[in-house]
Queue: 2 jobs
Job 1
Amino acid sequence: MKAYVTLLTSESYVPGALTLAKTLKQLKTENKLAVLLDLSLISGHSMALINKAFDDVIQINDQKLTAPLEKVAAKLGREELAVTYSKILLWNLDKYDQIIYLDADTLPLNNLDHLFDKYESLPATEIVASPDIGWPDIFNSGVLILKPSKPVFDKLIEHSETQDASFDGADQGLLNEFFHLQDKGHSWKRLPFVYNVTPSAHYQYRPALTRFFSEINLVHFIGGQKPWQDKSAEKDPFQQLWWEKFNSFFTKEHDRIKLLSTLPTEGYNLKFTKLVNEWDKVKEETHLPHLDELSLGDATKLFPWEHREQFAPTRVFNKVDVASETGSVKSKKVALEDPSPASQSTTQPLNQKYDQFTNKTKFDPERSLEEVSQIPLKMLSKKK
């Protein structure tokens, strides 16, 4: 019995795994579809869809294998890849005579059943895989053809516990070390790149991609950003193709909302060491000064105008003493009201000339306007 197998360890890859399974069925595969599944982060809704899409759901909650987290983080910067060590479990699926393993972020474009026939006589000590786009002298572990074997499984487990088990900290480094780079009696057989095309934003040989585009059998969406997580309007042709597949398979709004919601990655399933706030430790060990003891110093200049040079004033205006300037002129106060008899001067006050201001109750706006308008004429007549 032969089967396509994928690995699913969190809710975040469910859209990819379901689209993969439904695409293989759409391409009319005659072989079983199986999934190595960690149920700890899978929702009931996703579980129902998975049971419909796959023929064989293999629970690995208690068997899941995890790489040393520190090495994966240091070498790849992607802690979620630590759980990909669980691919070792493929060699323990001895109920299948042959397996084609496909990552959940792959999308077949053509029927791949002919690969089972082509590599039917493959010994258990060999693995078939395409070269990696980043370093073609090693293979990419997103597409693998293998034969399950208990002896090989035991050796892989033993190898995974050694000091230099994986050069990248994850499954690809581990499997390359075991089947290709270290002399352990195992070997890698090259699969043409068209069976695992990994276009990358960092590197893409577009002329070759154009030349062999019609021969591509499978696309692998490598990297941290997957098609179902990409919310940008502009997508490359392969991402558009993935969305066309997904949209045709999942037409119910309820299913789409559930599958495309923000979901935790595999890293959520890992055991992280509790972090300690260093600031809290400092407060406990040292005496911190009070706020009034602190000196802020010169404020940082943020804006351009704060950097202008300061100049001392070159012109200074002093207060002028009118009496000292004129010698005999004294300031007089002018009141609009009638002056009192005691303070009455020989000069006729302004309000006596325009008596309409004498009593506020007798104010006549029209008369005031008329008199004010005549002032320029009187001044002109005096000049003449």
Job 2
Amino acid sequence: MNILSRNHRLERAARLLEESADFRVLRKIPEPFQRMEGNTPPDADCIALVDVETSGLSLAEDEVIELAVMLVWLSPEGQALAHLGPWSWLNDPGKPLTAEIARLTGLSDACLEGQAIDFAQVSRLLDRADLVAAHNAAFDVQWFDQLLPERADKPWACSMRDIDWAAMHFEGRSQPFLLAQHGWFSAAHRAASDVWSLFWLLSQKRPDADGDEPRSHFARLRENAAEPSVLMSAHRSPFGAKDALKARGFRWNPTERVWQKQVGCGEAASELDWFRSKALPEPTMKTLSAVERYR
């Protein structure tokens, strides 16, 4: 049996299973391919999808060991018109990886030895982008800003937080789980494969919670990233209010020693009403753009 015949039979079997509510079929996302036919339209936004793998969580003590970038051009409606990459680079951290990092990334000291990231090319790629996006951007942006301080003025979006997955009845926010709920899976856990998986996830189309017309998650990401948000800081709130603040979605910022929460501009009024109902001092509020939001 040749490969085409085998794949055809497997696809027929998958479609048969999909006809039953007792089965859910997951398909492996296709291997990366590039789509760049001619010049992109002049009004097409360019989004750089990025991901880093690191030797640990400390900016001061750890290093980026793998970095990937992919460029995607979007139509005004949020359709992916063209894409290039992903490009990826390995980087020698100068010290052995821990067993946990080696297990998580699949990387080894031997494959990293002598490797280095081409920061000049990474900078050129980011320079072409109108927006940089990652899944959990608050993690990736700090590493990019440290490695490429000349690109620290770039706006960022987070596909985990800037899309209201719950409103569309998706559970959780991890990238593999969201991908699975769309009927796809990716076996690898490397920077380039994670970027390609993110591209595939954001290319999927679903209706909004209050609409019938499907649109891509790219459209939602770009739209929500463009909207300002408000950082609310519960200064002067008494210690006894910490449980109520935590239950309300505020998170402790150990650096500034204050409970904080980011909300959309339209949600700020209801948060203020909540503070007043609890007889708590009103929080300070700071408007954040996509340049500031995850930094």
